[in-house]
Amino acid sequence: MTILQRNKTRATVLAAVLLATSAFWAPATFAQDSKPLVIARNIDLNSLDPHRAFCDTCQIYNSSVYESLLTLDKDNKPIPLLASKWEGNADQSSFTFTLDPAAKFSDGSPVEAKDVKWSWERLKNLKGSASFLMDNVASIETPDAHTVVVKMVAPSSEFLNIAAAPYAAVVNSKVASEAGAKADADASTTDNAEAWFLAHSAGSAPFVLKSYEPNSELRLARNDKYWRTAPALSEVVIRQTKDAVAQAQMLQSGTADIAMQIDPDTAKTMTGSDVKIETVPSYNFIYVALSPGAKANKVPLTPEVREAISLGLDRPSILDFTIGSEGQLISAPIPLGFPGGSGFEAQPYDVAKAKELLAKAGHADGFEMEAAFPGMNVYGVDLSLLMQKVQQDLAKINIKLDLQPIPFANWRERVNGDGIPMTAVFYAPDYYGTSQYVDYFAMTKGSPWSRRAGAERDPSVLNPKEADIYKAALAASGDEAAKLWHQAGEEMIKDRIILPLISPNLVLAYKSDVKGVRYSACCNLPLAELSH
């Protein structure tokens, strides 16, 4: 999907304009289907609690069963959902949302401002994976049943995009509270509703939870009380199917209508006029990361050494070895198509200069380096094969990698503990906004990757410029903000801590009679738009 760079506005967004644009989102009126639509994918759910959920399947589930105040159209522009209009003040430190009075939860009760306040405070106070989305929220006021006023700690030009994220789900606060859900400051220790959410839902979206069998299937049913146009599908079943080959077999045999994680090689083997294959650019990327503060380092990973490692990576060859034409190179840890994510120069490959830098750093004969990484296939790329190619490249500059593929849980423990000298891993966006990449990858004090890079043991990795650019970008808008995000990307390239390599394309594979399949930055796969 091609993204059009959006222009954020500081002025009030007129209700009439917003209501008109909502037609881009609302599904057309379909003849309703009684046959379930079956999706084959590896179900990576960590929770069905919308404020604890944090995964690719979670994005599909949350956006199908719960609604946020806004959503994104096909060009990634915010449009109305639960909110019929909104406005921001001049410095983007306060946002006022007006709820659509027609909005109703699946039990028929109205969606009110108190539900938004409760939901967003719960998301923040659960202190889970997606809680960071509300870190910059200072207060939420509800002057009446249909008005929500959000005050920010600091200006945030991206808050409207956060309000469109599936993790910013609005929950029926009365129903959830009766089930043990809490939104108070101590919610992380007093909330006991997660088990209830495994069998129940309390949202306002086109579908409701019908049943969930871990490691087997997730089943959704049409919300018969949905307040907008009813979805065409009466039921959607996401069936646990771990690998691409099995997913392809289900699609070709007719036991699945959509296969969601088909890699390019598997796609090439699929035949039949009743199967449709589309390949679109994705926002996902795979990167190598270095940790100067890792306890296992055999030599100091100084800026010269890190630059040498980057120069030793033959990125075009890595792309050709892993996915070939089914993806593209990426230079900065900002997805291509996100604000500020385009226009970076290709990263050079220069063995002679790499050796020169290593000699200057006192390592003319090279050195050994531990490289532990998750032993998994992601976005059609086997990380073990990828790292074997990286190992071959770096051997040419006399760096010997000790490859250690390990389970993801073990990797996470090690990278967040003593650190790993070199690793390889992946990233997919949590919402459509560039600030999340600076939050995560920049060498600012306390960021996830500054900690993993060992900033406490080696403060030299910190880059104060990035914090200043980040603050300025959130206070800016439109082209000005995009230029600042681009500057942040340039600084992250100079850090030579995060070394992005490739952005694999996404394969959409589905039966030819299925309509409405598309890749969404908001919702991954918008189920409400599907029919067959």
UniProtKB/TrEMBL annotation:
Signal in keyword set: yes
Keyword presence, Transport: yes
Domain of life, source organism: Bacteria
Positions of the Solute-binding protein family domain: 77-444
InterPro entries (alphabetical): Peptide/Ni-bd, SBP_5, SBP_5_dom
Location of the protein in the cell: Periplasm
Database matches in Pfam families: SBP_bac_5
This protein's UniProt keywords: Signal, Transport
Region forming the signal peptide: 1-31
Principal cellular location given in the protein's record: periplasm
PANTHER family in alphabetical order: PERIPLASMIC BINDING COMPONENT OF ABC TRANSPORTER, PERIPLASMIC OLIGOPEPTIDE-BINDING PROTEIN-RELATED
Family: Belongs to the bacterial solute-binding protein 5 family.
Protein name (record): ABC transporter substrate-binding protein
Lineage of the organism: Bacteria, Pseudomonadati, Pseudomonadota, Alphaproteobacteria, Hyphomicrobiales
